[in-house]
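Researcher: Next sequence.
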Amino acid sequence: METPRPAPQSPLALGEGRVEFGTPEDVAVGFPLAGLGNRIVAAALDYLVTALVSILLLVALVFVSVSYSAAARTSLADLFRPDGEGAQAFLTILAAYQVLVFLVQWGYFVFAEMVWNGASPGKRLLGLRVIRDGGYPITFTSSVLRNLGRIADLLPGTGLVALVAMFFNRDEKRLGDVLAGTVVVRESREDAAFEPFEGQRHSALSERRFAFNRAALSSLGPEHLQVLRSWYRRAPSLPPAAADRLRARLADAFARRTLPADRWPVDDGERDALLRELLLALRERLEIEA
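Model: Next structure:
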């Protein structure tokens, strides 16, 4: 019989097959892991995009070579001869092409993960997202590290290293994820279909108990909004004592991220207000940025 995992120390921690908010009652609030098959399909779609861009760059290289040959009044054959008049120019263009292809194949993922909160186009189509361990949004540094690790993951040219690492890692991490401290999750459609306080906006509230620091609010991402949605979806079905304990831990965890110590909620009424106002503020911010 498998030994149960100890209760997570972080407010948002990794659980078996999910990214969960850890509680003594083992209430699961969070995301399921992406799954090996979903990640393979998402990667295939992304590499298709980078391959198309690389082909366009190759077409551009041929066009530049032909244009140079015409301007220099040499034949195209001279460009490929080591002693040809345009050989040095061709080698320069070829080296530039290799650099551009590397930047496309590597920078594509970093750019996409920064623009779309951890989701490349392939991941977006399959409802996947990259987050940091602990449930925090991906940063530029972690994105760079996980995508530099892609160089090792693609060895021996087939991605076998990545597949083996993901298969044997409990949290389905490839080497780049281990290096960067990231994990790929699947957005829960069940939670996404449920929208608490639908139609309400934080900016339209007539009375607010809390003022959120803009920098602190910006540190939260879609995964934190999903945690808040999950709380409101599941709270009515929890035993009262368990709901009170989960509310307290959830509110305290978010208060530490978004409020000065002297404004932390002190009772259940303030905790309810904090979670509601934070959900509205975060949802409104993400809608504006989308």
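Model: Residues 36-186 form one domain. The chain is about 60% helix and 5% strand.
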